[in-house]
Amino acid sequence: MAQARDDAPTPGWLGVVPGAALLLLFLIPFGIMLAVSVAGREPGGFYQWGFDLAGYRRVMSAFVGGILLTSVAIAAGAALIAVALALPFTVLLAGLSRRAQTAILVALLSVLSLSEVIVGFSVSTLLSRTAGVGNLLAWLGLTAEPQSYTPSLFALMTGLTYLSFPYAVLVLYPPVARLDPELGQASRTMGASPLRTFAGVTVPLLRAPILGALILVFVFALGSYLLPQVLGRPEHWTLSVHITDQAIYQSNLPLAAAMAAVLLLATLALVGLALLVARDKGAPA
Amino acid sequence: MTARLGRLYVAVILLLLALPLLVVAGISLNGGQTLRFPPQDPSLRWYAELFRAADWTGPLRNSLVIATVAALIAVAVALPLALHVWGRGGWLSRALYTLGVAPFMLPPVITALGFLVFWVALGMYGRMGATILSHGIFLVTLPLVTISLGLRAIDPALLEAARTMGATRGQVLRTVVLPLALPYVVSGYAFAFVLSLNEYIIAYMVAGFTVETLPIKIFNSLRYGYTPIMGVVAVLFVALAAAVYGAIGVFGNLPRLLGADRVGDR
């Protein structure tokens, strides 16, 4: 708005209410969390104020290092699979009629807003012995007896991909929908096959958004805290699961807060990187 | 040929997305207390049971109360914020906007832990009010994004015309801006409502042992005894989400709401 200040369409005090609410209920909790991460541990209780780096020392230990490595490997795998599946899907989706696009977006949003609990329950049921795949394979005669495929790394990756796929599509959707369709048409007119057009024109044009989407979906998958518990084995527990575990079951809030602080820093760095990538090479706004 | 292959790919992916939900829907129809698929002596009795069994009606009521009020709080914070960012700009409102979008960019466990220590410090740990306020703040992002989108679509000429005709700032806001933004406010509320219903980790960390919501109840049942009611809740949640987003898709422009500029109002 290039208007003089008093001419702005909204009164100046309007920002005070939401500003205060976010400050009080969002920034302050984060501040307290950081303070707790250096607080002392109180057996049986929550924490004692103080300055003790025990939490951070444990974060630097091999135990947490291993968890971090597992989390990163699992989330990166899920992000790669989800984005690889989502990219052609999104390109095809953007070429459909508005009606079809709306219907598919409704389906994707519905799946995306499902609780991780429900996704975990559904996938574990699908892979269980008495319902779904186990039964089907036995019925087809591929296995002698119905088998359970959960909990396992396979089940966990299936669940994470299921969870991340709609998110990946929605992250890729704006840049894909903004692509000039004439570029693809030009490539087709020159005699390139649709697959060649996809690989030679569409994907290179989308390099920056794809990289950005990979990072965002990675962060999204890193935040999963229930699927590793429901579909994976304890050795597949990610940092998010251990943070909950330390905070609730081990009553070690300082360690939980220290781990959360590390996760927070890593996430902020990654999201910043994703935004930078998108701004650098993305749509010339 | 390749176009058909593309359609097939989209169809297969959609089918895979639907598969676990179809199995769960089948499970919810089991007559007995088993989780078999295909269901055995199918009946709808567990659908009635959700609204009757005492250990499920409590979580059902909690979830509905929390989602209704929390989404209202989210809109109450997001609407003035979106208006402020749209009308004034400047670094402060951009910073506030970032703050409003931040909860969704971070792994939810971080936000949940932040709320946990906050409510412990305030002595409100374990109360439903804490869950409601936490959800309200956490979900600000959704109405903030939708309302901002709606405000940006308003033709500035409309505002100028109203001002030229002598309307005061308050009158312009009330009679021009808010009516035009209303559909986006409603869809923002709907998004926040659906997500609050489905939210687990914050509700669990803030008051999981005293205020049980449906997702928490399902997770507990995953550990201590499966029942087809879990499938019933999953089916109802999917149906509700599809109904809400379907309504937004029918009455609004969902592709544009999700960032596609090219899809016109055909």
TrEMBL record, chain A:
Membrane topology: Multi-pass membrane protein
Cellular compartment(s): Cell membrane
Pfam families (UniProt xref): BPD_transp_1
UniProt keyword annotations, A-Z: Cell membrane, Membrane, Transmembrane, Transmembrane helix, Transport
Domain ABC transmembrane type-1, chain residue ranges per copy: 68-274
N-terminal signal peptide: none
PROSITE patterns with a match to the protein in the record: ABC_TM1
Transmembrane portions of the chain: 12-39, 59-92, 104-128, 148-173, 205-227, 255-278
Protein family per UniProt: Belongs to the binding-protein-dependent transport system permease family. CysTW subfamily.
Protein name in the entry: ABC transporter permease
Source species taxonomy: Bacteria, Pseudomonadati, Pseudomonadota, Alphaproteobacteria, Rhodobacterales
Automatic annotation (TrEMBL), chain B:
Cell membrane among keywords: yes
Membrane topology: Multi-pass membrane protein
InterPro entries: MetI-like, MetI-like_sf
Domain of life: Bacteria
SUPFAM superfamilies recorded: MetI-like
Record's subcellular location: Cell inner membrane; Cell membrane
Family: Belongs to the binding-protein-dependent transport system permease family.
Name by which UniProt lists this protein: ABC transporter permease
Source species of the chain: Rubellimicrobium aerolatum
